[in-house]
UniProtKB/TrEMBL annotation:
Gene Ontology biological process terms, A to Z: cilium assembly
Subcellular location: Cell projection, Cilium membrane; Cytoplasm, Cytoskeleton, Microtubule organizing center, Centrosome, Centriolar satellite
InterPro entries named in the record: BBL5 (IPR006606), BBS5/fem-3 (IPR030804), BBS5_PH (IPR014003)
GO molecular function: phosphatidylinositol-3-phosphate binding
The UniProt record lists the keyword Manganese: no
BBSome complex member BBS5 PH domain location: 22-76, 155-209
Record Pfam families: BBL5 (PF07289)
Family, as annotated: Belongs to the BBS5 family.
GO cellular component, one term: ciliary membrane
Keywords: Cell membrane, Cell projection, Cilium, Cytoplasm, Cytoskeleton, Membrane
Main location per the UniProt record: membrane
Protein name per its UniProtKB record: Bbs-5
Amino acid sequence: MWQDREIRFDVDTRMLRLIPGEFTLDRIENVEDTKGNNGDRGIFRITNLRLIWHAQAMPRINLSIGLNTVAGIQSKKASSKIKGETESMYVTAKAPQTRFEFVFTSLGTAQAVTRLFSTTQSINRAYETTRLYRELKMRGPIVDEDGRLRILPGEQQVDKIDGVWNLSSEQGNLGVMICTNLRVVWFATMSVGYNVSIPYMQLANCRVRDSKFGLALVIDTTPQSGEYILGFRIDPEEKLKNTCRSINSLSKAASLKPFFGISKRESDTHSDEESGEIAVRATRVDAFAAYFSDGLVSSEPRGPVFNEDLGLAVEQLRPGFSLAQLWEVHVE
């Protein structure tokens, strides 16, 4: 899967189609790729894996920016051929041995400008906080002090196997293996901090093979997660084989309907007839966005203005924000 981990330019439009488990969170029309295609109107889509932009007149001119490559999102002034000097969204993205900067400008209302930035920022934060769904993790806070797995939202525990030996050291470590609908977890009985969490999307192969410890359960992970080979000893042999079959079955089910960690609330969605997709629309202004830095050094800082309600001078707010919105507290 490359969608969340790569930056691709002008790909075949078929590669912009959503893969299983990927869905559109917002779709914004009249967005300009100000840096690469200044003057061209386009459509900007935010999915749970990537940012997609394509020109309205010529869809083969497009961008696919994986959320895993995004290093920063800022709101700064830019010069648009259509809109002139205006507030735009700057996206910094990293690739092997290079960095890219993308500038997107909403050509719509002030509300659309705010929505472009706040929605992208919110989804990027959600992606960062849901890495356990997608990435192999070792020695993480995945088990509490009482030896109970910290269940993720949308996760269901399927099986728990006691007396599982991790064969990574000469003498082995006794522990517990837990299989859920999303991942395989093992942790040591004597030290729950010694653990590993393997999402099924990072599991390349699971099999039973002979080792110097006898028959062992061997899990191979994908190149994306480091190509680890993890061995576990489970007795008796029948229990070992049943565990292997169970993991393979759960992995197959997860691959048919993958869950990448970001969910959409059906109550906030509506059908987009033009794209045939369900889109989550921004329902409020993100106050965090109003305070988000314009950069460490700003050539045109926003000057102070007198606010009659506060009786104080405050920094001028960006278009689309009001002082009242900054005092609102939203509980998700």
